[in-house]
Every structure is written in C-alpha cells, then in structure tokens.
Amino acid sequence: MTAARRGTATAPLRRALRRHPSQLARIAAWSALEAVPAFLIGHAVARAIEDGFAAGRPGTGLAWLAALGAAWLVAAVAARQIVLAVAAVAEPFRDDLLAVVVHGAVRRAAATAGARRDSAAVTRAGLQVELARDAFAAVVTTVRGFAFTVVSVVLGLLTLAPGAAALVLPPFAAGLGLFLASLPALARRQRAFLMADERLAEATTATMGGLRDIAACGAERREGDRLAARVAEQAAAARALARVTAVRTAALAVGGWLPVLLLLAGTPWLLRGGAGAGVVVGALAYVTQSLAPALGGLVQGLGVSGVRLAATLDRIAASGADEEPPVPRLRPAGAEVRLSGVTFAYGPHARPVVADLDLRVPEGEHLAVVGPSGAGKSTLAALVSGLLRPGAGEALIGGVPAACTDPSARVLIPQEAYVFRGTLRDNLTYLAPEGVPEEDLGRAVAALGAEDLVEAAGGYDAPLDPAALSAGRRQLVALVRAYLSPARLVVLDEATSCLDPAAEARVERAFARRGGTLVVVAHRITSARRAGRVLLMDGPDVRTGTHDELVRTAPLYADLVGHWQPEPVS
Question: Of 120, 313, 357, 382, which one's alpha carbon is 20 to 30 angstroms from that of 251?
C-alpha cells in the first residue's frame, strides 16, 4: 500500500478517534473501573487464604471474596457503559466510510454515465463497511481492555509478589512480541482473502445476470469453469490465511500459559523467598483469570478484527480514491448556459451522442428539449448540469465550467425521484442550506400543487416512507425540493413524467415564474408549447426554434407533434 493510500485508508480512523475526545475520556474512566477486579483478584485470593481460611478466620476470608464480588458488579456496570461509549465513536466512523464508498461509486458512475453497475461497490457498501464498523468497535474495546488489564495485573503482581512478576512478565512479553510481529503477514493474507471474495462476488453477479445468454450460447461449461476457478482462488486464500493465523496459537501459548508453568515450577523458590501458599495461588489467579484472558482477547481482537479492519479500510480507500485531483467548486456569476463545440460519446470508439453542439441559453430563458428516444436528451441534461464532462468543447454555467460549478448553483431532477426516510419537511428542504421559513414552504407547496401530498403525509413533520409513495408523489417531493433550493439553473429531465397534464403544466409554470434558467426535457408536447424556445435533438443533429417555427420547418418535430399523446395519470 502506498503512503497516499495508507493515509486515505486511515483518515476515517483518525477522525473517529479525534472527533469525540469526551467519549474517549468516558471510555478510559469506565475502563479503569472495569479493571478493578484485575488488580484486586490476586490480593483478594491471597488474603482470603492466608489471613482468613488458613488462619481460622472464615469471616475475613469471606469478606475478601465479597469485596472481589462487589468489584465484579462494578465492572459489569462499567462494561455496559463502555459498550455505549464505543458505539458513539463507531457509528460516525461507519458514516465516514459510507461517504467514501458512495463518493467512489458516484464518481465511477458519472465517468461511465451509468453504463455499468459497480457490483464491487455494492459489496463494499453492504458488507465491507459493516465489517469495518464492527471490527473498529471490537479493536477499540479489545485494545483498551488489554491495556488497562495489563497495567492492573502488573501493579498487582509487583505489590503482591515481585518474585512472581519476574517469572510471569518475561514470557508474557515474548508472547505479545511474537503476536505483534505476525500482524503484517496476517494483514496481507486477510487482504488477499477479501480481494478473492470480492472477485468471486463480481463473477457470480455477472453469471447470474446472464444465465439466459449463457444457456442460449451453450456456454454453461465455460462459465462453470470460470466460477470454479474463482471459488478455488478464494479457497486457496482462506487456507493461506488459516496457516498464518496458527501463529496466534503459539503466541497465546508462550504469553498466556508458559507463565503458569513457570509459576508452578518456581513455587519452591517463591516459598523460600517468604511468599506464602496464598500468595502463590493469588499470583496464579492473576495469570489465569486476568493476564491470559486479556492476551487471548487481544490475539483474537487484533488477529481477527484488527487485521480485518486494516484490510477492509485498504479496499474501501481504493474504492474512493480519486484518479484525478479534487474538482474545484466555483460560484458562477449567473445562470446562463453556454455550450461551445461540445461532443460526447459513451466510450472511445462509440458514435457521439452529442457532436459539435453550440448552444446558448440566456439567463431567465425557458428551454424545452425534445426528440425521439435515444436522441441524447438526458445526456444533454447531464452535460448542462455538470454531471458529465464533454469529450471535446466546453459547457459553461455563468462562465464557469459546468463540472466545476458549486452544486448549490444548479439542480437536476431526473425522472426517478429520490426520496429518503425522514420527515416530509426534511425531504422538501434538503437543498435549502439555511432552512426554509414556514410561510415560504407553504407558498412553494401551493405553487407546485403539492397540498394533497402534505395532507396525505400527515403534515410537514410526519415521517415519510418512500416505498409508500406513488411515483407521482415522489416526483412532487423532488420538485418542491428543487423549487426551494437556491439554484438559479433548474434542469428537469422528464421529472414530471408521472404527473397528469394539468399538474405538469402547473409545475412548469411555477418554475418559469420562479426566475432563473429553466431547461425541461419534455415528456409531452404541451411542455414544448409552454417553453419560450425548443431544442430538437436527433442524435448529433440539433435544431432550435419556437414551437410554431419547428412545426413548419422540421418534419421530425411535426411528426413528434402528431404522435405525441398525453400519457395516463400515475
């Protein structure tokens, strides 16, 4: 992994740890309480035996054991608080990772104009981000538990029996060092396994999507062999990972159980040095009940969760890494649209969808874009709004390259309207950075004829279920959202296709009165009639004029007018 990639991969991790210092302090405070039994157990066992039961005072012995039990109750309460505090740190970390994945997926989709589905991005978003979140929480929990437990045990051993500490700590340090030295190899094997798993998922998705074609071409055996090779690759990666993880068992044996053998073998020496039998048992309790479990937890936590976190972060960073420097975002001086010699094709050898197009849409104009299916209308909408970059020429908004324009200066509403879970108010005001006063919200809803939508939803602050909305109502939500945005350029790419003709007319008139520049990819001929100017597209060939002019001079447009009928209400 390069230094730049490593920085990208660990950036969300660093942000998560720095973002909430109060939560980290809370975790440390509760961890100190949780570690009290780790310090007390050896002393309590030793005193219960030597000062209590062995001395004929069972009440004293029971009192020491009761104190240890009370410490465990406090530790249980602390453990619950630690889980809550770790969750408060891990959830924002998950959100940061999702932002990286979504950024990468959107960037690739824009680069390919949706020409392919990024199934790997789906895998990363649905599986790897969740794995990273869970692994991060496990690592934080494990590392802080190990650190506080080790400090408590060391203090306990040194105050109870320094000779026992000399027998326990060297092999423990050796086992810990052996495990830490194996982590880089574990990370490499884990990353190889994740990549093999991802390639298998991509191959399976592609095969499942083309089963009909595979059967029609008689390619079942070839596809089966291809998938079998991917399965074998994943299995080999899993076996290699399993071989390396065997080092964890050796590290645990050296650091966790060798100290027990040394304590038992060194018992005569400890007794000659003045330690009693209770002290020896107490030292054994420190090792078997605190130190060995802590090392086992660290080995499991870092050896599985930590390695998985490192490998997953690397893959997520690769998905979101930009091949190009970040695009600057500039505020345009106005909302005039100007295309000069714009050419765009979906691929280096594909026929251009838009070829050498010159177009000027003055600020304040209402332009309708019409043409047969596949003529490039949606491509033009994406070029005008900056979602696509021309292969040649330039597309400007207010003198600024469209792809570099501040997102708040233009808004594109596609046919498939996006509505998210939340309140209706959140959905309607999503693009208004400063919020929207109640009266302005009401005026926008009235202007676009969305009163029934608000009433059916139960008011602005009612929760909205996108799946429960019809396609027409989802489009109304997106249209009101665009109307309330500060954007002076609005591009509607068949954004009213699910509205009835009267509702569509009301929406387009409202946007025309709103001010700014309006570009409408027309769904019905009435949209073209309402526009001040019409752009007729037939692939690379384009013509502009008013509705009446094009009816007289453009046979294609006259033919569209003759066959263009209003669609049924959705």
Answer: 313
